[in-house]
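Quick one: structure for this chain?
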Amino acid sequence: MDSQRPLLDQVFILRFWRESADASEHARWRVLVRNINTRRRDVVDDVQGAFAIVASNLNAAAGDHDVQERLEPEPSKQEH
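Got it. Here's what it folds into:
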């Protein structure tokens, strides 16, 4: 059975607020997405865009973990 190493936790802070360009326009959601692991900050104009950033970062982190696993040699099995 392969031992699995847990992925490093991916930590995001999402801050939501309503904003309108002028008094006649309907307020829209804006979102600040902060990735604590990479210290990256993005501001997007809709909720779907915020979650797309989170999903993309999670997929990238999972891909990095897969690559790291392939690069590490498997432990040698010793016979007794």
